[in-house]
Amino acid sequence: MSANRMMETDNTALLHDPDRETELLVGIAQRVLDRAKAGGAEQAEVSVGSSLGREASVRLGEIEALEEARDRSVQVTVYVKQCTGSASTGDLRPEAIDETVDRALAIARNTQPDRAAGLAEAGQMATAFPDLDLWHPEDIPLDDLVARALTIEQAGRDADERIANSEGASVTSEANLAVYANSHGFIGRLRGTAYSQSCVLIARDESGMQRDFDFDSQRCWSDLAAPEATGREAARRTARRLGAERIPTGRMPVLYTPEVARGLIGHLVAAVSGGNLYRRSSFLLDAVGERVMPEWASLIERPHLPRAARSAAFDADGVATRETPLVEAGVLSRYVLGSYSARRLGLETTANAGGVHNLELAGATHSFDELLAEMGEGVVITELMGQGVNLVTGDYSRGAAGFQVEGGRLGAPVEEITVAGNLREMLTGLVAAGTDVDPRHNIRTGSLLVGEMTVAGQEG
Amino acid sequence: MYEQVLDSLLAPAGVGEKELELALGRLVSSQIDFGELYFQRRVSEGWMLEDGAVKSGSFDSDQGVGVRAVAGAGTGFAYADSMALPALLDAAGSARAIARTGGNGMVRVGQPRIAPARYGAHDPVGGGQSSDRVELLRTIDAYVRSLDSRVSQVSVNLASSRESILVAATDGVLAGDVRPLVRLDIRVLMEADGRREQGMSGGGGRWSLASITDPEFWQEHAREAVRIAAVNLTAESAPAGYMTVVLGSGWPGVLLHEAVGHGLEGDFNRKGISAFSDRMGEKVATEECTVVDDGTLENRRGSLSIDDEGTPSACNTLIEKGRLVGYMQDRLNARLMGVEPTGNGRRESFAHLPMPRMTNTYMLPGKHDPGEILASVDDGIYAVGFNGGQVDITSGKFVFAASEAYRVKNGKVGAPIKGATLIGNGPDVLTRVGMVGNDLELDSGVGVCGKEGQGVPVGVGQPTLRIDGLTVGGTG
């Protein structure tokens, strides 16, 4: 196959001449802002994105899908006499863009005035744009993506004789360019690449079938884990689940591994985020200055980490990001606010329009094995299922799978159980954090040892 | 419908049947089983009220063409946001890379398929000129607040969309559809005695906007949201452990969607990775259980006149009197399994590949009065509202999270209990259905099903069911 045939000149431009492509996006943004102003908007903001993605998927040694994705979009918000209107389109022809602006203006003529509406203050716009090392373009032929996926899957299938089937392996490459601009004259340019590989395997024995996966994702192609490592880890994670059973219902310590511990911290972030606060839909209302985690724990936002998942010089409002603590020695030091929610609450933006940028947990002291020893008896959770989280009350009840812990050691696999508690108590009652941090994610935490929770399984 | 979509969607891009034939000709070769063009345009509009005012609204439009070439179990796929011929030919060139050969065959588009329309070609999108919608949301807000003085926050969302699609394939499939969809959601926060709880209710379907503005419709959901919030204000801790669970009729049918629905999708079974693989003809439920997936129901949220591959929708029986009798199929998986497509090939948009997906999945009514079912329970819970669920199709384990539930003791419904997750095993949960009610109800039209990152609207339904053993994840 000649994979090069898949490239259009249009697409290579994005990879090889991102400056030129970015200035095309700036031109579109300018057109939008000009038309919004002419149409009566006192303020306006626009995001324009352009991306190129490729994905090769294989299953049982054969190609399953070759995909090429070329996405472009324009999103505009206008403010007319404190009334807000938004519109978006995936059609970047000039007449479609003009129509989209007109739609946004028409919406704004129908919405009601909102004193909190509008851009962030002009003085808050980012003025420094450090190189965050997020752009590592590579024109990787589909054939190479296919070859890598085949290697990953084969390594996984060869790693353990109980691997009986496969959902396949896939390898992706992605390049994203974006421009955020607003009527303060702010123009922010974003670019980033992302590469990923994953493998999903099926193990089988007399007890039945189990499925699990492993993956890696990086900004730079050469930073990806060896393909064999991802395949073998997928096999290990899958085979170890065979023979999983329910355990008796009771109260016991629960250890969250990093893949699920992230979610716990994520619930805390959601509970102190502006939208949930001004809707009074949070179990952490008015909690700044209060203890929300144990004294040994701090959470620090680090938006300028090189090559990291969510690094950015400015937030979705154009406001300059900076390194700031969210939780210090267990005490909540601030909320997570964009300019809109900040105005709703009578506070200042924390440059978190669009969310947090690389949140790190500090205070970890234990290796994973030391955490097991610390808990003695209980259950390790490696997977959570379902939506049983109520942010209004903090009530928490989710499906789970993992392993028993006996005598401080990892024991038999467990499934079809639930873990339940209240998030406020779970977070303040955290016993210890692990040093086994997974740095590939926006929330960077190791394993978390939660105090006692109710685990439901068989009749107690 | 095909002619209408051809005129409104393709003609402005300069594409007619001759251009379709050119692009399909670029796809066709002896190495591929079939190639397909999927044209789509979707416009949607949303309005949101909070704090007593409609403070935001949005209008979104997206259009493009997805092109795929299928060879065996392999698919080549590319898409373009332009429908003009050069973009079509480029995408076709990329998609056919799967076949590893060039091809320039001749394709003649055939006769468009005529399928019975399951909904009208309404246009519920106002295009931003929509003061009536704003007025409606304000009226709803005032009504909700008049119902109970403990209501402290009200949010109301109104979403409407209209999607036009056209499918043309190298083997003669040719079909079009226009799909309206509307949805209203009301959320209430109630505060009393230092407690805060929420209640939500909503509904919709493939309707015109007039059906939403009918006071009978929105007043019912307003009262329901307020009632649920009030119930939850007095809820006690839910029990923990394995016990009898009675599920109410309607939306609790999310049980069927998670426990058996996903496991009966053709792709998972073709690959042998579903807990239901190779179990065709076997007993997977009690005699009283018959489960169907039905895309033909009039005006329902999950209904389709044709699926996203041009196959007319159908009422497919999945489980008949306890026995597994059918899977849900798209074209690729049906062909590889040697069966016919069932009208379940769906995709989120032109930028996604189709897969076997559910439409409206429900259980047929049984013979028991719901009161009789509750009276038969010594110790358990009665769950009538749910947030949603999830399943691991390989191990069969599924969860769904209750949002309104009650303790049941000695046949009497007692105190409300806090939301709790229920967890079970798909292949055997229906073998423990002790009683099936005679009160089949479908949900109100709010379901979204996610699979491999693609969301599509679906429906569920069931009569009241008694399940003799399910793990309840409370704290008490």
TrEMBL record, chain B:
Gene Ontology BP terms: proteolysis
Keywords: Hydrolase, Metalloprotease, Protease
Limits of the Metalloprotease TldD/E C-terminal domain: 241-474
Domain Metalloprotease TldD/E central: 131-233
Keyword Hydrolase: yes
Protease found in the keyword field: yes
Source domain of life: Bacteria
GO CC terms: cytosol
Entries under SUPFAM superfamilies matching the protein: Putative modulator of DNA gyrase, PmbA/TldD (SSF111283)
UniProt-recorded name of the protein: Metalloprotease TldD
Organism: Wenzhouxiangella sediminis
Lineage: Bacteria, Pseudomonadati, Pseudomonadota, Gammaproteobacteria, Chromatiales
